[in-house]
Specification:
Strand content of chain D: 5-15%
Family (chain C): Belongs to the [NiFe]/[NiFeSe] hydrogenase large subunit family.
Structural class of chain A: alpha/beta
Oligomer: heterotetramer
Shape of chain A: globular
Bound molecules: flavin-adenine dinucleotide, iron/sulfur cluster
Radius of gyration of chain A: 22 Å
Largest sheet of chain D: 5 strands, parallel
Order of helices and strands of chain D: EHHEEHEHHEHHHHHH
CATH architecture of the largest domain in chain D: 3-Layer(aba) Sandwich
Pfam family, one (chain C): NiFeSe_Hases
Helix content of chain D: 25-40%
Distance between the termini of chain A: 53 Å
Strand order of the largest sheet of chain D: 2-1-3-4-5
Number of domains of chain A: 2
Cofactor (chain C): Ni(2+); Fe cation
Structural class of chain D: alpha/beta
Number of strands of chain A: 11
Shape of chain D: globular
Number of strands of chain D: 5
Order of helices and strands of chain A: EHEEEEEHHEHEEHHHHHEEHHH
CATH topology of the largest domain in chain D: Rossmann fold
Strand content of chain A: 15-25%
InterPro entries (chain C): Ni-dep_hyd_lsu, Ni-dep_hyd_lsu_Ni_BS, NiFe-Hase_large
CATH class of the largest domain in chain D: Alpha Beta
Organism (chain C): Thiocapsa roseopersicina
Chain lengths: ~350, ~280, ~425, ~250
């Protein structure tokens, strides 16, 4: 652990900007967007979740895969010269999400595009001391604690930050900088105090234990709730766009009017869109909005866990905030839990 | 020799295909065409029956297509049978011999051929389903001695819709293959059976316990065929089906092909009934 | 030629549908009409019952080429009706945006619609082969004008972020600086445009008429101001009806207007004649170079007046950007209405001339609307020009006469698709 | 062989055709890859020998129907350009009002001098092969449509809602800004230009294939819009489509 006095933060960021693209949340219309900071004065560390998660630097919404000449069949990869990037002030939920993405993109055939970006990205996370917004349910999902996976982690101690270093890459960001002090005994006490004080600020919002989620969802496959919620879902797809753990994409070709130079790109897709699972012949394997919603939730709460050992939802609450129809994971999962309870209780009373 | 998959995967992008040349074309039906493709020298496709490639036309797009030729006969070339249904397949149908396309793959798990050794085999193909099965059938017939009895049940919409006519004729001529075909709608001069594919099943009298079945066809066919096979006592783990889903990447990343927790492009497209029987999205 | 029939069905290279019909029998001109055959679009009727803040988005759809002009006049009418006073920043942004539209429209008209006639071509397409530099210059100038509008209001055709009381999006200073640089660089293209027009041989036809334009003492006016006439007299905007005096004529789905004479002319030439003194010095110099001074009474020279305005708007846009950058761009909420009922007239001198929107609003809902567009005001004048022109050129071939007439109509840069609207609005 | 292309317009503001001209700014090569044989707004030369017809504008009077059918007979491919041709557009707002009243308001006792009837999209008169939506169309989408035609396929347009693009652009949702938006039920393809400029989507690109109208109305209601205001919003560009969903088509 090191100590960074708050008044030195700007100086640190300016130092980083000499060698890195530094991105951080910026306020816009009451929300926050991760953007390159042009001036350390613009830095905001205290923010509620961003519109798009920081994953956009690892899996851009639109990404060039390769360029081609359709006449000569020449192809060239476009994993461009990626700028070394520091993502500032990640919340711990987003950090958990990146840990999951690392697993997914690194399993089986590794996605070199993701890897290339990931290698050049350094994550500076920040300890969340109070709930960032009503919709967040990180405590329930177990993502409020600092996991591994950060490069540098900041904890606000009032007039200074406690600085934890999680990796070699993180070490390099502070190495040799006199801005950082060695901690004294009191700093450790202060950290413990802050950490102990933070937990009561957060509520458990999920009515079941997070480890029960896969079972709950498995048992709820045929719940009528899917239809009820499916009726109100607009199929707008916002929830999937803003989710830090969604990664589905579509692949498209673009070509010039002379039908010669073009590129293949991928664009974030959404499983809540009607056409997502349609195949040739027109058969739709997820034919109703209810089923599409169910797929999204089972994927978050069950499939990802089964495939990668981590849940696919980190409780950031972005989807709940964005949904024009007010469909929220907490509302939905708690209703499922409530509807299952009588049946379970009955079953247990019988045994 | 470089295998295509290895080449695909050592490109700096897994999404970048390798060029291939069309060297032979045959129009099977109004909407189905057969393509013989040649890889650049030094490449082999090295696939298993049931695997597929992602076929590209640069500037148009990409689509998953099963390899319909036998692995043993590939040697730097391979074959596809393609139905014209949309943007990529339309464009492909317009290409002539000599044109260049591009391919990635092969991807997915094919049929677990080892588990077919010593067994009686029923191939059940509906329509275009014969394409992926042909790769398996050829493989089996090439090493005929390793297997028990072999039957092919094939249903097409009309007699004009039969694919691989030369192969069909050759298989029908063989003593060691029981070949049964049916059509939904007969045309003038057709004197064979008429009816859905399940009507052919009673014609094959293999002992259930030693039989494996490989099925490829349109989604509607699966439920009916499965009901009959299960009723006939074939083991769930001995029924192998190939699944078609939207696939944008072929490498388990784009999310389109998911049936519940299964990435069809990776764990499939060939899966046993035992693996999918509880998956509503697989067999609905 | 003592007998002549000209029947041009759907004049080309103008916006909207119009026919020219001329009939000369035994040396006697019996018919000389510009028929507007555009289908009626009923904008005034469909505005009724709409929320006040939808009006500018609906009326910008009157015309794809003057969309910013319609939106501006519409917003001014609403603001007058509801007692909204936009901020200085809003006013500056609107003026700057307006210049974008004038530039876009004038460049389109000069290069793509008019120039081919003088170069003996049917359109800009063969020009792209024979004079690629000229076409690329036009495209470059249009691109700049379009980018200017896009930066300020999202896009030129059907502006998005202009709203009652202000804007819903603001340019970044860096974007403005980039535009300024391009505007400065485009002075060379402005010069080349003036040179192009110097080289064109305009028909020597003159007919004095009344010229009408918006006017302000302190600037070359495009927005607000009052209504000035070359025959004298300045009237407030609220008197627009006394100026326009519309009548319906059977051969046209657009109405005709007359003020102090039988007809009057609006547009670049009218603005030039009336507001010459307020042109930017560089624009005055350009006029000099073209031998243009007020009052110019050859309607074919409207294109030359447009070129002068291209210079003026380019220069004024630079000044406006400087002013905006000096003030600093603030993200301000649109100024709010001070009342929800009222009546107001808004005016703008759009590329083709003076445009009026007049709304009556009750409880935030529009209950009455009237829009008077420039081409409607010019129609009677065009016909009188045609009538004056034809007898003097009867010795030419029918083809030459037809071309002369088409070029005359085109000189006005008519925008016919919007000219269809009502008269005698009686607000209930 | 370059395809021969013609442009036509019926009742419209011609903004889409101007956008076609604007396309040349970024894609001057357009003139090298197609042969334009008719384009009244931009050129005098004309020929009736064309394969592809781009038609702007809605059909608003019986006498236009014949001309539209003629174009259909001549062209192998007919493409509706812009909201007027695609949806009836702004012109169709009047379809919800008594036509006679509309005519009288604008032309008084001369109302019968001019022929008109309820506005309709091209597809209500002839078969349309593809559409380029928008009011106005987007130049890049137009260029892309031409590219697709040159590749021998029909122009493909997005079939998902605007929210998708809006979020890819990382706009703060208008609903979160306390305003309203038709993005969830509107076809994407414009890159969410209106929300990006601070205005809620007005639906100019038409409805997505399966719009949840009940739910969007609820969302609008919840943000304080009255039924009249909701109807007005849904009838800016969507009059014809929503009336059709209600089973009403103009005679
Ligand atoms: C493992 C596997 C193996 C296959 N093997 C073969 C084979 O051997 N031969 C063969 O011919 N085909 C095969 N297919 C099917 C083939 O992949 C599809 O027919 C092909 O992807 C169609 O691509 P396209 O670009 O031509 O059509 P597209 O233009 O993509 O669309 C074709 C049809 O698909 C549906 N569709 C797909 N996406 C959408 C969408 N977003 N919105 C609406 N409709 C949509 C529609 O019904 C449309 O008519 C296989 C598929 C899989 C998954
Ligand atoms: S599902 Fe919702 S709450 Fe969970 S990680 Fe995704 S956006 Fe956040
Ligand atoms: S954000 Fe809400 S309405 Fe939109 S797709 Fe997701 S759940 Fe449905
Ligand atoms: S602003 Fe409109 S288009 Fe954008 S996300 Fe919100 S509802 Fe969707």
């Amino acid at each position: 652990m090191k100590i960074l006095p708050k008044h030195s933060l700007k100086a640190w960021v300016e130092r980083l900007r000499a060698t890195h693209r530094v991105v951080a949340p910026r306020e816009t219309y009451g929300q926050y967007i991760f953007e390159e900071i042009e001036n350390a004065d613009d830095l905001v560390l205290d923010y509620h979740t961003s519109v798009l998660p920081p994953k956009k630097y690892l899996l851009p919404p639109r990404e060039d895969l390769f360029a081609f000449n359709a006449k000569t069949m020449e192809m060239s990869p476009l994993i461009e010269e990626i700028q070394p990037t520091v993502i500032m002030a990640l919340h711990t939920c987003d950090l958990h999400a990146i840990t999951l993405l690392d697993k997914i993109q690194g399993t089986g055939h590794t996605d070199q595009h993701y890897q290339a970006r990931r290698r050049k990205t350094t994550l500076v996370s920040i300890e969340c001391l109070k709930p960032c917004m009503d919709h967040a349910f990180c405590k329930s999902m177990g993502t409020l604690a600092v996991p591994e996976g950060f490069d540098v982690h900041l904890t606000d101690l009032g007039d200074r930050y406690a600085v934890d270093i999680g990796s070699e890459q993180g070490e390099q960001l502070i190495e040799g900088l006199s801005l950082f002090w060695e901690p004294v005994e009191a700093d450790y006490d202060r950290v413990n105090q802050v950490m102990a004080g933070k937990w009561p600020n957060f509520d458990y919002r999920l009515d079941c234990d997070v480890t029960d989620l896969p079972d709950l969802l498995a048992a709820s496959q045929d719940s009528a709730l899917w239809d009820e919620v499916g009726d109100t879902c607009l199929a707008c797809g916002q929830c999937t766009k803003v989710c830090p753990t969604c990664y589905c994409f579509d692949v498209l070709d673009e070509i010039d009017l002379k039908l010669e130079h073009g590129k293949r790109i991928r664009v974030w897709d959404s499983c809540l869109i009607e056409k997502f699972a349609v195949v040739a012949g027109g058969h739709n394997f997820r034919s109703s909005q209810a089923r599409r919603l169910r797929h999204r939730f089972l994927r978050k709460g069950k499939y990802q866990f089964e495939s990668y050992g981590l849940l696919g939802c980190v409780g950031c609450g972005r989807c709940a905030l964005s949904c024009p129809a007010h469909i929220t994971p907490i509302g939905l999962l708690n209703t499922l839990a409530e509807r299952r309870r009588p049946a379970t209780e009955e079953a247990s009373s019988r045994s | 020799m470089t295998t295509l998959l290895r080449e695909t995967l050592t490109h700096s992008s897994i999404y970048m295909p390798t060029p291939a040349r069309i060297v032979e074309v045959e129009q099977f039906t109004e909407v189905e065409k057969w393509f013989h493709l040649e890889l650049p020298s030094g490449f082999t496709i090295d696939h298993k029956p049931g695997q597929f490639v992602e076929v590209s036309i640069l500037g148009i797009g990409e689509a998953p297509i099963s390899i319909c030729s036998s692995p043993a006969r590939s040697n730097g070339s391979f074959e596809l049978c393609v139905r014209r249904v949309g943007k990529l397949t339309d464009a492909l149908h317009r290409l002539d011999v000599g044109s260049m396309i591009a391919v990635r793959g092969p991807f997915g798990h094919g049929f677990p051929i080892d588990r077919f050794h010593g067994k009686d085999i029923i191939f059940i193909a509906g329509g275009l389903g014969l394409a992926p099965l042909r790769s398996l059938i050829t493989e089996v017939l090439d090493e005929r001695g390793k297997y028990g009895r072999v039957a092919l049940l094939y249903g097409a919409r009309t007699p004009n819709d039969f694919l691989f006519p030369a192969d069909l004729a050759a298989w029908a001529d063989r003593e060691d293959v029981e070949c049964h075909v049916t059509v939904d709608r007969p045309t003038e001069g057709w004197d064979g059976p008429v009816g859905v594919i399940t009507t052919l099943l009673p014609k094959v009298k293999f002992p259930a316990r030693n039989t494996v079945v490989a099925i490829v066809g349109p989604p509607v066919m699966y439920r009916f065929v499965l009901d009959e096979l299960l009723a006939a006592g074939i083991a769930e783990g001995n029924i192998w089906l190939s699944f078609e889903r939207q696939m944008k990447c072929g490498v388990g990343k784009c999310g389109h092909c998911q049936m519940h927790h299964i990435y069809t492009c990776q764990q499939g497209p060939v899966l046993s009934y035992a693996e999918v029987k509880n998956l509503e999205e697989a067999l609905s | 030629m003592s007998t002549l029939k000209v029947d041009v069905h759907h004049v080309t290279r103008v916006e909207g549908h119009g026919n020219i019909v001329v009939d000369v029998e035994n040396g006697e001109l019996t018919q000389c009409d510009l028929q507007i055959v555009e289908t009626p679009r009923f904008f005034e009727a469909i505005l009724r019952g709409r929320a006040y803040d939808e009006a500018s988005h609906i009326t910008s759809r009157i015309c794809g080429i003057c969309a910013v002009g319609h939106a501006t006049a519409s917003l001014r009418a609403t603001e007058q009706a509801l007692g909204v006073t936009p901020s200085l920043q809003t006013t500056l942004l609107r003026k700057l945006n307006f210049h974008g539209e004038i530039l876009d429209s004038h460049v389109l008209h000069i290069y793509m619609l008019v120039a081919p006639d003088y170069l003996g071509l049917g359109s800009v397409i063969p020009l792209a082969k024979s004079a690629p530099d000229l076409v690329l210059r036009a495209l470059r100038m249009k691109q700049l004008a379009g980018d200017l509008c896009a930066t300020l209001c999202g896009r030129h055709t059907h502006p998005i972020s202009m709203t009652v009381g202000g804007f819903t999006q603001f340019p970044k200073p860096a974007d403005l600086r980039a535009l300024r640089e391009r505007l400065v660089a485009s002075r060379a293209d402005c010069d080349a445009t003036i040179q192009l027009l110097q080289g064109l041989e305009f028909p020597a036809f003159e007919r004095d008429t009344e010229y009408v334009a918006l006017h302000r003492d302190d600037e070359y006016c495009f927005i607000d101001g009052s209504i000035a006439s070359s025959d004298g007299g300045i009237r407030p905007l609220a008197d627009y009806r006394e100026v326009t005096n519309e009548t319906i004529v059977p051969h046209s789905s657009a109405k005709h207007a007359r003020h102090q004479r039988e007809s009057y002319l609006v547009g670049a030439l009218a603005r030039f004649n009336i507001n010459y003194d307020r042109l930017h010095p560089r624009a005055q110099a350009a006029a000099e170079a073209l031998g243009l001074r007020p009052k110019t009474i050859n309607p074919y020279l409207n294109a030359a007046a447009q070129a002068v305005e291209v210079v003026h708007c380019t220069e004024d846009a630079i000044l406006l950007i400087d002013q905006l950058l000096e003030h600093g761009i603030r993200h301000e909420e649109p100024a709010a209405p001070t009342r929800m009922s009222g009546e107001g007239v808004g005016a703008a001198d759009v590329p083709r001339g003076t445009l009026f929107h007049h709304y009556k609003i009750e409880d935030g809902t529009i209950v009455g609307a009237n829009c008077i567009i420039p081409t409607g005001q010019n129609l009677a004048n065009i016909e009188l020009d045609m009538r004056a022109l034809v007898p003097g050129i009867l010795d030419r071939t029918q083809q030459e006469i037809t071309l002369a007439l088409e070029m005359l109509v085109r000189a006005y840069d008519p925008c016919i698709s919007c000219s269809t609207h009502m008269l005698d609005v009686k607000f209930v | 062989m370059k395809p021969k292309v013609a442009f036509f317009e019926f009742t419209s503001c011609e903004g889409c055709q101007l956008t076609v001209l604007d396309t040349l700014q970024r894609h001057p090569e357009l003139l090298e890859v197609i042969e334009i044989v008719q384009f009244r707004e931009a050129m005098t030369e004309r020929s009736d020998d064309y394969q592809i017809a781009f038609i702007e504008g809605s059909c608003t009077r019986p006498s236009d129907e014949e001309k539209i059918r003629e174009i259909r007979t001549q062209a192998q491919i007919v493409i509706a350009v812009g909201a007027c041709a695609h949806l009836g557009g702004i012109n169709a707002i009047r379809n919800r009002m008594p036509l006679d009243d509309v005519r009288e308001y604008v032309y008084g006792d001369k109302k019968d001098w001019f022929e008109t009837y309820p506005a309709r999209p091209l597809s209500a008169v002839i078969k349309v092969d593809a559409v380029i939506p928008g009011c106005p169309i987007d130049r890049d989408e137009f260029a892309m449509a031409v590219t697709h035609l040159l590749q021998g396929r029909m122009p493909a347009i997005p079939d998902y809602p605007l929210c998708i693009e809006c979020k890819l652009t990382e706009n703060v949702c208008m609903f979160l800004r306390g305003q309203t938006c038709l993005g969830p039920i509107t076809r994407a393809g414009c890159d969410a230009i209106c929300p990006s400029c601070g205005q809620g989507c007005e639906g100019c690109r038409g409805l997505v294939p399966s719009p949840n109208l009940g739910s969007i109305k609820e969302a609008l209601r919840e943000r304080g819009m009255t039924e009249e205001q909701i109807d007005a919003r849904l009838s800016l560009f969507l009059t014809y489509q929503t009336m059709q969903m209600d089973g009403v088509t103009p005679a």
